[in-house]
Amino acid sequence: MSLTLHSETSLKPYNSFGLNALARHYTELETLADLPALLASDAYRQGPVLWLGGGSNMLFTRDYPGMVVRMATRGIRVIADTDTHIELEAAAGEAWHDFVLHTLEMGLSGLENLSLIPGTVGASPVQNIGAYGVEVKDVISEVVCADLANGGAEVVLPNSDCRFAYRDSIFKHEAGAHLLVTAVRFRLDKAASLKTAYGDIARELDSRGISAPTARDVSQAVIAIRSQKLPDPAQLGNAGSFFKNPIVDATQAEALLARHPALPHYPAGEGRVKLAAGWLIDQAGLKGYRDGDAGVHAKQALVLVNYGKASGAEIWALAGKVRLTVAQHYGVDIEPEPIVI
């Protein structure tokens, strides 16, 4: 067994806010062969247990009283190759952006709009990550899991069983609480079918003089856009977009647009409309707001940042202020994206 169990371990290196919470027990799972031993260990059985990926969607407001297990499995393999597409399986511990770049090097298309999103492959279906008109559910064929309620037995969920929705999946609810994502299978096209209609991408490509982009061109445009708008967690602690774009019914959207015609909005299906949370926060006067070392980023209002010494509790209090202020101004609730401990 290659597992090493640590006690009273700082989680600062393992969360993108850079918060110095302690885990009572900490270990890293580098191979699934060690999973049975992990599940049988006293520390695991005593609980509670937190499974951690890249820590880019996590807010620690306190120490963790149980075991934290960081998924560190690696590996990418081709499991199907046809004239039109390739199906790849990537281990849960693979860094997401590195995996995206790997698919581009293979000449594949489908993930380019999701470039530079922090985190791991294993976290991507849990959150159903998305950006610039694409959600990861669009290219996932299957999710491979370990059933923690059945000794870690392998379970393979087809896309249709994952209950994907906006920033949501079965893995975030009780029905999937016993399932640990161990690998994700992606169906990616050999012939590029690019989505460049999103305004920022179109403008960035145009500024580069690119009229017939490749998947790599789109990826580079997305990287440039995200680098301009979003702070690097290595330089300024953050978890990317802290709030989900709210989805409201058409009647409420119509009333809001009558008062605020510039409010960015997008069809969300079934008579519902998605609103831009960043715009709501900005127009409520909170862009660039700072309370001690907890702040709203000056360039992107969706992002809450740690200027160095903020605690998780202080960042969470700031999130509450932002949420309340938006509700008071617009009658809209903006939900946090990160998992809050």
Provide a concise account of the structure shown:
The protein has 341 residues and is an alpha+beta fold. Helices cover 25% and strands 28% of the residues.
Given as residue ranges, the uncertain stretches (5+ residues, pLDDT < 50) are none
Average pLDDT reading: 93
CATH class of the largest domain: Alpha Beta
Order of helices and strands: EEHHEEEEEHHEEEEEHHEEHEEHEEEHE
Let me know the largest β-sheet. 5 strands, antiparallel
Question: Number of DSSP helices?
Answer: 9
Rg from C-alpha positions? 20 Å
Please indicate the percent range of residues in DSSP E strands (runs of 2 or more): 25-35%
Question: Which CATH architecture of the largest domain would you pick?
Answer: 2-Layer Sandwich
Q: Span from first to last CA?
A: 30 Å
Strand order of the largest sheet: 6-7-12-10-11
Helix/strand-derived category reads: alpha+beta
The figure for the number of domains is 3
Q: Please give the share of residues in helix.
A: 25-40%
Oligomer: single chain
EC number: 1.3.1.98
Enzyme class: oxidoreductase
GO biological process, one term: regulation of cell shape
GO molecular function, one term: UDP-N-acetylmuramate dehydrogenase activity
Explain this structure to me?
It is a single chain. This protein is α+β, with helices and mostly antiparallel strands. The chain has nine helices and 20 strands. Strands 6-7-12-10-11 form a five-stranded antiparallel β-sheet. A hairpin with a 6-residue loop joins strand 18 and strand 19 (303-306). Helix 5 (199-207) packs across helix 6. Keywords: Cell cycle, Cell division, Cell shape, Cell wall biogenesis/degradation, Cytoplasm, FAD, Flavoprotein, NADP, Oxidoreductase, Peptidoglycan synthesis. One of its GO terms (molecular function) is UDP-N-acetylmuramate dehydrogenase activity. It is an enzyme of class 1 (oxidoreductase). Cell wall formation.
